[in-house]
Amino acid sequence: LQASDNTTAAFGKSALELQGLTLADVLDGRSVELLNEGLRGELIGTAPLHVFSAVLGGTEFHGLAHRYDRILILELEEAVQDGTISFQNLYSVVSGAVSRLEAAPNALELCQLAVREMRQLTGLDKVMIYLFDEDWNGIVVAEDRAEDMDSYLGLRFPATDIPRQARDLYLRNKMRLISDVYSTPVQIVPNPNPLTGRALDLSYSKLRSVSPIHIEYLKNMEVGASMSVAIVREGRLSGLFACHHNTAKYLSYEVRTACEFLGQVLALQLAARERAESREKKLKLVAINSALLESMTKVENYADGLAQHEAELLELTGATGVALCVGEEVHLLGETPTQEEVKSIATWLAQQKKEVVATDSLPAQLEGADAYRSTACGLLAISTSEVYNHTIMWFRPEVLQTVSWAGNPKKDLDPRTQQLHPRQSFKVWKEIVSSQAPDWEAAEIEAVTELRAAIVGIVLRQAEERAQLSTELMHSNQELEAFSYSVSHDLRAPFRHILGFANMLEKKLGDTLDPTGARYLHTITDSAHYAGTLVDNLLTFSQMGRSEMRRSIVDMNQLVEEIRRGLAAEIGDREVDWKVDDLPNVHGDLAMLRLVMQNLLANAVKYTRNEKQAKIELECIDEGREWVFTVRDNGVGFDMAYSHKLFGVFQRLHRAEEFEGTGIGLANIRRIIARHGGRTWAEGVVNEGATFGFSLPKTPLKPQAGEKV
Question: 618: which of 141, 404, 553, 580 fits an S-S bond (Cβ 3.0–4.6 Å)?
Fold first, then answer.
């Protein structure tokens, strides 16, 4: 149906004269028989297969056949004997080269050995190995050349030199030979194909012509012949053998077959060595992760365990600095940005909503990051919580790079035709690359991902243990509260009886009691009264853990003002300098919060009674997620060595003779604030005053079963 317009020498007929003839009309019987056997046995597919050798017009040809788009394509290639490789010695030549490649000690030496083998096989003036980066720019990593050929070793070539369409074609047809850059392409006639109505697709053809732009590219390089062999690893084009010759040069089918096989061997060897190196590195990183895991399991806070192993954390990723962020707490190890800068990065990471983030140029993604690129140009980060801002970050500094290109990588635009043309010069063109850190390797990203999984597992296990312990404590507290309530309730009646009978006895005996008897009776009365108050307070404390919370919006300004008016009688004619901030409205139980403020302000009044000028300050600070209240006075204060006792039941730091009280008020405060989801603390200096603080979340806790809103 179709033929190239150069068949006269082989068949004695032009392409048009061949129309209507069969292969049996132009080939010998044996060649036709071999071709039919290949078709019947489905040996002929998309890859060109050497089917026969035949003498046509006095010249021997190799017959290469393949099928594509339901069309059989037969290529006749002149059989050239170059004296190096024949079908008879092809195996021994190739196996020798493979043995030498396998002995190479590393990947770089492997590539250098491969170009020497390829040049020896082909006799070409220059052979290079050209590997692609992730952006499809190529770099020449190995080269073997004649002395009169320019060296491209170490130079980069832009991705546009081999566009995507050409790269895709290399996956289908791994070999491309241009034996004469200055030859004239031959047309296929007729065109289009009479059966399909389309141009004949020669994507898999060995003798196809190439793009005129590529021919212009080679001419600009002053190359007479060119051969490319694809290096394909796991279905991806990872590089090329790029071969040049000063003059036209034809390579035999046998030589090209050996070269194509050599390309496949190199791809397998590179992949095997990369896997071995990756496996070795992974084993090393697994060992580091195991050590970190062991350290984390020994402490309550995993960040504390990691902070003890700075060297291992840095070695895990090859970083120069690490930041451990657990809420507002930040641990900085090695060379890192400041705490404020790390917090800004953490905020940006939270917006990404990713478990793992890796970048080799943080300034390109985060505004303001250019200011600390000397310590954190590269960032690898993991989030260890979906709820809280818990993050681990690894940093790498900026590394200025000088990239050498083979000529200016920007293609020239013809002002007349507005078409792109290959560059005219391939002399070294240098570019300085800034704001860039070394790439994070896949093994390093995998290692921190595994570390994240380990941390999440530890946190979940600790949460389960805490939940179980919390349940046990809740049951114990419920039993204790029930017991306390029962005891307190049952004790109230006896103490009332003691007080009642003591009062009756005092009225009956009256003045008949001597001073000693009167003192005894007053001691009984005071002790019974104190015991009754103690029981009442204990009952209140017990009820704080049992009573329902009636949540509402509480006006703290109004609440404090009411309590201050109630304390006026106790203050009497004392001078008290009150300083009260403008307080916010909060979420909580009004009765419980009233008890908190009543206790704190009453204590401040009580413990400043010996001061000529008492000072009581009530402040509130907005801490983002919570309100922080503090009550400060200039009273007797306390020794911080005993501060851990302050919020315990019946714990007092002052004698009852000096300051009355039962030691339950602060315990009540802690319980109430805890039920609101807040914190309590105290600071003091003897004879200088005390500060008591508590926090209330701005977002109220979810009501427990039975609680009212």
Answer: 580
Length in residues, the chain: 709
Same fold, 90-277 and 299-440: yes
Q: Does the 3-78 domain belong in CATH 3.30.450.20?
A: yes
CA triplet 157, 409, 176: central angle to 5 degrees?
40
Task: Report the predicted TM-score, pTM, of the whole model to 2 decimal places.
Answer: 0.60
SS3 200: coil
Query: 3-class DSSP state for residue 55?
Result: strand
Domain boundaries, the chain: 3-78, 90-277, 299-440, 547-697
pLDDT at 705: 45
Q: What is the mean pLDDT of residues 130-143?
A: 93
- Where does residue 81 rank: exposed (0-12), middle (13-18), buried (19+ CB within 10 A)? exposed
* 225-258 pLDDT per residue, tens: 999 999 999 899 999 999 999 999 988 888 888 8
Res. 360: pLDDT tops 90 = yes
Kindly report the CATH number that applies to the domain delimited by 299-440: 3.30.450.270
Cα gap 682→641, rounded to integer Å: 12
Q: Give the Cα separation of 403 and 429 in Å (integer).
A: 8
CA-to-CA distance for 65 and 31, rounded, in angstroms?
A: 12
- Considering the four listed CATH numbers 3.30.565.10, 3.40.50.300, 3.40.50.150, 3.60.10.10, the one that applies to the domain covering 547-697 is 3.30.565.10
